[in-house]
Specification:
about 190 residues, Rossmann fold, six-stranded mixed beta sheet, 5 helices, globular, EC 2.4.2.7, cytoplasm, transferase
């Protein structure tokens, strides 16, 4: 579900967020219109809007853990987790976590990858939120859901700052709701 479809239609914070995201044509390869959140992070007002909107949405959902997808989920996840009284756990690329991990392979728009999670990070029946900066195909978020569910967590929802329009009307990932703040800018070409 896009935020504009959930009571935030006309909310000036969404426009400020959208305006703060820079589009880089043909990066990292030809045909991709890269949605660069770096400029969003340089705008403390827009960055705070992102955190505030997510906190308002999740503060009464009894979420006990926020899982951030490497690497940009690490930026948005911790302030949201702190504000709602939840712990933050990183979902990392292979070989980045010490101790026992479980992993999940997934397909990207341009290849395969894998996420890992510490097995000690999640307790059975914890209510989880997965956060990332952008959803393109849903592969990374689906792998995140699989990891958390394998560890016994209940994934309540996935949240992204930017979502491709193809997810409108298809707001479920592996049966889980998806909440997106804004659509990408300049959609003449493939966007990630």
């Amino acid at each position: 579900m896009f935020a504009v479809e959930n009571g935030l239609q006309g909310d000036p914070r969404l426009q400020a967020i959208s305006d703060a995201i820079r589009v880089i044509p043909h990066f990292p390869k030809t045909g991709i219109m890269f949605q660069d959140i770096t400029t969003l992070l340089l705008d403390p007002v827009a960055f705070k809007h992102v955190v505030d909107i997510f906190v308002d949405r999740y503060k009464h959902m009894n979420i006990s853990l926020v899982a951030g997808v490497e690497a940009r989920g690490f930026i948005f996840g911790p302030p949201i987790a702190l504000a709602i009284g939840a712990k933050f756990i990183p979902l990392r690329k292979p070989g980045k976590l010490p101790g026992r991990v479980i992993s999940e392979e997934y397909e990207l728009e341009y290849g395969n990858d894998r996420l890992e999670m510490s097995v000690e990070a999640v307790k059975s029946h914890e209510r989880a939120l997965v956060i990332d900066d952008l959803v393109a195909t849903g592969g990374t978020l689906s792998a995140s859901i699989n990891l958390l569910e394998r560890a016994g967590a209940e994934v309540v929802e996935c949240a992204c700052v930017v979502g491709l329009p193809k997810f409108k009307g298809h707001c479920k990932l592996k049966g889980k709701p998806l909440y997106v703040l804004v659509e990408p800018s300049q959609l003449d070409e493939v966007t990630f």
